[in-house]
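Summary of Year 1 activities. Much of the first year was spent building the evaluation harness for sequence design. The harness presents a backbone, in tokenized form, and records the residue chosen at every position. We chose the following record to illustrate the format because it has been used consistently in internal testing since the harness was completed.
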């Protein structure tokens, strides 16, 4: 992965809001097809950094390059085209409450492609199934969904345009242990099956150990450490130790270091989330098998 140009590269990024300095001289690079995580304490600038990567905020200094483009130099047309090459799963879903789940998923396709309504609905059904949701969920409205279903529906919409790059903002926050473990498995499968580059913000230690290839730790406006979870577990910086020295950190690390078991259907049992072995089975929606791809011939990456 490191031999190819980075998918995302930040150079000397600085960000401030008035007199409050958020970032000072941030440098990092995300390689193609890796799962890259941003962690840090509250107020460390994780969400601001993600917003700068997706054209929602411009840093005060430095440069942000995404998919070979300097974001500061893009005109409106180029920015719109670039946005169609990534997908974003927002922490609280970000779905439109007045639209059904299927309509939410199909919205990017209706806005940015010339596909027929019937084919868009078929693609939406396929994306629903890819994320483990049953077909009938498509007719529901976001307020009717559980937290886990909301996360999966938001992810399905983020995948609508077959992106090269996927941003996940706290993908397991607020979920019960079984639902969170299902998201872990889903993220791994998306990277394996589609070669996606994934950038995520998370405080979920199980997710970090089980899914992340590399993790950047933010503190005091800087990246204080970067590496795999195994590498970071030996790092002495206080901001890094905070993620490993508590009971949850130790439990997640011990579980991650056990021999890997890859069951055919059920995800690995969560540890730091302290799920019990008697937890109820995953809801039927999570067991839905993906249907065959749409029968039409939509472009693999609509523009």
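For this record, the design step produced the sequence shown next.
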């Amino acid at each position: 992965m490191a031999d190819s140009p980075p998918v995302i590269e930040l150079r000397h990024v600085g960000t401030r809001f008035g007199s409050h300095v958020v970032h000072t001289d941030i440098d990092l690079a995300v390689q193609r097809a890796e799962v890259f995580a941003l962690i840090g304490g509250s107020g460390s600038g994780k969400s601001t950094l993600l917003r700068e990567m997706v054209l929602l905020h411009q840093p005060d200094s430095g440069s942000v390059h995404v998919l070979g483009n300097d974001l500061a130099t893009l005109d409106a047309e180029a920015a719109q085209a670039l946005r169609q090459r990534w997908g974003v799963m927002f922490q609280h879903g970000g779905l439109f409450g007045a639209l059904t789940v299927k309509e939410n998923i199909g919205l990017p396709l209706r806005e940015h492609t010339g596909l027929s309504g019937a084919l868009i609905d078929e693609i939406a059904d396929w994306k629903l199934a890819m994320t483990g949701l049953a077909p009938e969920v498509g007719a529901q409205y976001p307020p009717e969904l559980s937290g886990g279903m909301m996360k999966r529906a938001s992810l399905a919409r983020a995948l609508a345009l077959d992106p090269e790059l996927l941003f996940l903002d706290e993908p397991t926050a607020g979920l019960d242990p079984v639902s969170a473990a299902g998201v872990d498995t889903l993220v791994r499968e998306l990277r394996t099956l589609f070669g996606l580059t994934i950038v995520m913000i998370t405080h979920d230690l199980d997710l970090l150990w089980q899914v992340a290839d590399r993790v950047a730790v933010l503190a005091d406006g800087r990246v204080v450490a970067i590496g795999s979870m195994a590498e970071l577990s030996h790092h002495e910086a206080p901001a890094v130790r905070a993620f490993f020295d508590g009971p949850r950190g130790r439990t997640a690390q011990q579980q991650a270091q056990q021999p890997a078991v890859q069951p055919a259907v059920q995800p690995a049992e969560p540890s730091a989330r302290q799920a019990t072995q008697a937890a109820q089975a995953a809801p039927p929606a999570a067991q839905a098998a993906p249907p065959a791809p749409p029968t039409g011939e939509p472009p693999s990456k609509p523009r």
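The CA atoms of residues 252 and 272 lie 5 Å apart. Quantitative recovery figures across the full test set are reported in Table 2.
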